[in-house]
């Protein structure tokens, strides 16, 4: 019995263009990282993403690329996980063609905008984005672990940025018109205490 080997590509969908950011995030320019990693619309489904990847492979590599994916049906491409909330996906493809799929994903540049009509999935308009492959793995488990690790790191980074923003505003408020002398004296006292501790 022959075992078909696959590769799992963990990918992010990023929105670097400020004109594509949601209104709630674009009004808060102090943390553009949240806007770049903004959620994707529900118009993008796992099946539609797989179709987009197959079309991109066909556009770049023609019949040869489709043949490497498994023929006209190109059943070799499957989206195993798609989270519109985190704009993250895991795509399974044949091991022999993972570089073709990777390059096709890199050249994709848009996701469908949501439609006002619930029967239609997309409107034909696209929201500009960047697809970034983060990890290529031989097992689904390793790709999932990397996605969880990156999500946790992003949460910690955003929380740290928010806390620094709050403290920065506090210090700016103190160091306003007449408070800069107070901040300088507090800094001098803490330096003196640090010197005494060193001795």
UniProtKB/TrEMBL annotation:
Its EC number is 3.1.26.5. Pfam families: RNase_P_Rpp14. One of its GO terms (molecular function) is ribonuclease P RNA binding. Component of ribonuclease P, a protein complex that generates mature tRNA molecules by cleaving their 5'-ends. Also a component of RNase MRP, which cleaves pre-rRNA sequences. GO terms for cellular component: multimeric ribonuclease P complex; nucleolus; ribonuclease MRP complex. It is an enzyme of class 3 (hydrolase). Its main location: nucleus. Signal peptide: none annotated. Belongs to the eukaryotic/archaeal RNase P protein component 2 family. It comes from the Eukaryota. It catalyses: Endonucleolytic cleavage of RNA, removing 5'-extranucleotides from tRNA precursor. GO terms for biological process: maturation of 5.8S rRNA; tRNA 5'-leader removal. It is found in: Nucleus. This is Ribonuclease P/MRP protein subunit POP5. Keywords: Hydrolase, Nucleus, tRNA processing. InterPro entries: Pop5/Rpp14/Rnp2-like, RNase_P/MRP_POP5, Rnp2-like_sf.
């Amino acid at each position: 019995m022959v075992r078909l080997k696959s590769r799992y590509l963990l990918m992010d969908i990023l929105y670097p263009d400020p004109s594509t950011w949601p209104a709630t995030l674009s009004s808060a320019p102090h943390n553009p990282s949240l806007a770049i990693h903004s959620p994707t619309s529900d118009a993008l489904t796992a099946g539609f993403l797989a179709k987009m990847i197959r079309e991109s492979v066909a556009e770049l590599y023609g019949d040869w690329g489709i043949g490497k994916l498994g023929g006209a049906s190109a059943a070799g491409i499957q989206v195993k996980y798609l989270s519109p909330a985190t704009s993250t996906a895991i795509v399974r493809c044949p091991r022999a063609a993972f570089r073709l799929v990777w390059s096709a994903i890199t050249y994709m540049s848009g996701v469908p905008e949501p439609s006002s009509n619930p029967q239609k999935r997309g409107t034909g308009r696209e929201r500009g984005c960047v697809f970034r492959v983060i990890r290529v793995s031989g097992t689904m488990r390793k790709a999932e672990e990397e996605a969880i690790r990156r999500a946790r790191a992003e949460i910690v980074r955003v929380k740290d940025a928010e806390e620094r923003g709050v403290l920065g505003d506090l210090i700016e408020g103190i160091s306003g018109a007449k408070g800069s002398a107070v901040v300088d004296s507090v800094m001098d006292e803490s330096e003196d205490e640090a010197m005494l501790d060193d001795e």
